[in-house]
């Protein structure tokens, strides 16, 4: 585990935390310590501050588990955390055995996330294509939604208690309202490969997604297409992504062992702004908003240079989508009226909802 100082852009501390991979990490809500889980079946709690001179680097607590844990998340208000592996375990920080274990079906669970508002709710993604929702106050899971393909991770909206976004293997992201899981609120469709991670901005209006197609995209919550795409020549498959709490930056970690720091708003000027600069920027922003539907202005605002690989894949997928649509139209034309119902894009990807 490495701890970085973002202002100096230096690694200030390295911890040999586990034997083998470190699978998950989360900070405690107070920010004084953090937890890690690894392939050695242990959960460890560490101090956020560096040890004193001459002091050994040792964890505060170590919990020996029975299985390999693949993810961990901390409760937003209490001394409780959840781990996932073969099942979702809820732990009290003071105890060495879980308070309760929640399971629904038998499969490996890849990630678990606590709701930041309704703090007793949590969601998990399993590799049998399920998104399962749990309530900590009950000993059984609430409900689950089964999608066409596997969901890699999910993230709760920090401003709307019931809304979460799931990053899926079928190149899309799905924003759900947990009360109506029959169809997603929005399907976000711009990536050309599996989406591996997603994180919300602290305002709850946008989220950022990391994909296997070597790009990072920023989506408004209510729009189906991204407003921004980030990529570099050297950046490989992006595995993880985080939006900083001051709403200014995005951090991403990728396959070629680099952490990159991006601006959340690409054209924003960093540093101190003079009053006239600030006024000019606000004026320009208002102009953009006023004329946003003018065809030429909209073209300039939406145009992004893309790597050749992504550009070609987008083209290819457009052709495939058109072919599927044509095939469906032909089938409907030559079938008995009413025998082939229209299925909306939102409902196409949902297999079932189990309560």
From TrEMBL:
It is found in: Nucleus, Nucleolus. Keywords: Nucleus, Repeat, Ribonucleoprotein, rRNA processing, WD repeat. WD repeats lie at residues 188-229, 231-272. Coiled coil: none annotated. This is DDB1- and CUL4-associated factor 13. GO terms for cellular component: small-subunit processome. It holds the Pfam family Sof1. GO terms for biological process: maturation of SSU-rRNA from tricistronic rRNA transcript (SSU-rRNA, 5.8S rRNA, LSU-rRNA). SMART domains: WD40 (SM00320). InterPro entries: Sof1, WD40/YVTN_repeat-like_dom_sf, WD40_repeat_dom_sf, WD40_rpt, WD_repeat_DCAF13/WDSOF1. It comes from Spheniscus mendiculus (Galapagos penguin). Residues 264-350 form the Sof1-like protein domain. Belongs to the WD repeat DCAF13/WDSOF1 family. The lineage of its organism: Eukaryota, Metazoa, Chordata, Craniata, Vertebrata.
């Amino acid at each position: 585990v490495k701890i970085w100082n973002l202002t100096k852009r230096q690694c200030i501390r390295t911890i040999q935390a586990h034997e083998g991979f470190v699978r998950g990490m989360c900070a405690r809500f107070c920010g004084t310590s953090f937890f890690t889980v690894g392939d050695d079946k242990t959960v460890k709690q560490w101090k956020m501050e560096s040890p004193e001179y001459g002091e050994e680097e040792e964890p505060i607590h170590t919990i020996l588990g029975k299985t390999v844990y693949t993810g961990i998340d901390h409760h937003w208000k209490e001394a409780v955390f959840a781990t996932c592996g073969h099942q979702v375990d809820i732990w009290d920080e003071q105890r060495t055995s879980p308070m309760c274990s929640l399971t629904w079906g038998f499969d490996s669970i890849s990630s678990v996330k606590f709701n930041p508002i309704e703090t007793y709710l949590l969601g998990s993604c399993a590799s049998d294509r399920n998104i399962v929702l749990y309530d900590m106050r009950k000993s059984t899971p609430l409900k689950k939604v089964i999608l066409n393909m596997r969901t890699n991770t999910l993230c709760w909206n920090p401003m709307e208690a019931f809304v979460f976004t799931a990053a899926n293997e079928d190149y899309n992201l799905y924003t759900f309202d947990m009360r109506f899981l029959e169809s997603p609120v929005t399907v976000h469709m711009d990536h050309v490969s599996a989406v591996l991670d997603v994180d919300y901005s602290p305002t709850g209006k946008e989220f950022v997604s990391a994909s296997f197609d070597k790009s990072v995209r920023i989506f408004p919550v209510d729009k189906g297409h991204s407003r921004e795409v980030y990529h570099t020549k050297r950046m490989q498959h992006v595995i993880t992504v985080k939006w900083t709490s001051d709403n200014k930056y995005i951090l991403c970690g990728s396959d070629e062992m680099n952490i990159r720091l991006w601006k959340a708003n690409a054209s924003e000027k960093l540093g101190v702004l003079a009053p006239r600069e600030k006024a000019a920027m606000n004026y320009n922003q208002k102009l953009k908003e006023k004329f946003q539907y003018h065809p030429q202005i909209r073209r300039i605002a939406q145009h992004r240079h893309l790597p050749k690989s992504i550009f070609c894949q987008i083209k290819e997928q457009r052709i495939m989508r058109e072919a599927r649509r044509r095939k469906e139209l032909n089938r409907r034309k030559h079938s008995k009226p009413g025998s082939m119902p229209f299925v909306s894009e939102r409902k196409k990807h949902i297999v079932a909802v189990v309560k």
